[in-house]
Every structure is written in structure tokens, then in C-alpha cells.
Design a protein that fits this description.
By secondary structure, this protein is an all-alpha fold. Helix content is 94%, strand content 0%. The chain contains 2 helices and no strands. The protein is elongated and about 90 Å long.
Length: 95
């Protein structure tokens, strides 16, 4: 059941991505005849700005997640070391 849900989710994500990509590429070409050259310039600058901001947000979120994973891994290592030390001390007391 989980595998079917994952396949359906993947197909839907692909279709949504395809539609968004088509819209992002088709919009400037459709507006080419409707806008003046200055309007097209403004639209181009706006589009590039949106792409850059989206990319920056993605990289910031990815960096934050990577730091969080690293912090959690370090915490696991410290907890494992404390557990092993407590286990050794317990065995030393028992012996």
C-alpha cells in the first residue's frame, strides 16, 4: 500500500512540476507580443529575481537541515559514549 502511495505521489509531483515548468516558460513568450519592450525587460528582471530568491531559500533551508542532521549525529555519538562509559563503570562495580 505504501509503495502504491509513493508511486502516485511521484506521478502527481511530476505532473505538477511539468505544468509549472511549462507555465514558467510559456508565460514570457505569450506576453512577448502583449507587452512593450520596457514591460518585457521588467518581466525578465522580475522572473530572474524570483528564481534567485527561490534558489537562495532552498539553499538556506538545505543548509539548516544539514546542520541539524550534523548536530543530531553528534548528540547520538555523545549519548552512545556516555552509555558505554556507564556500562563499563557498572561492569567494573559488579566485578
Amino acid at each position: 500500500m505504501k509503495k502504491i502511495k509513493a508511486i502516485i505521489k511521484g506521478i502527481l509531483m511530476s505532473l505538477i512540476t511539468l505544468a509549472a515548468g511549462f507555465a514558467a516558460l510559456a508565460l514570457p513568450f505569450r506576453l512577448f507580443t502583449a507587452l512593450s519592450p520596457e514591460g518585457m525587460h521588467i518581466l525578465f528582471v522580475t522572473e530572474i529575481t524570483v528564481y534567485l530568491v527561490t534558489g537562495a531559500v532552498f539553499l538556506i533551508i538545505k543548509g539548516k537541515n544539514d546542520k541539524e542532521k550534523e548536530k543530531n549525529e553528534q548528540r547520538r555519538i555523545e549519548r552512545r559514549a556516555k552509555f558505554e562509559q556507564a556500562q563499563r563503570e557498572y561492569y567494573d562495580l559488579a566485578a
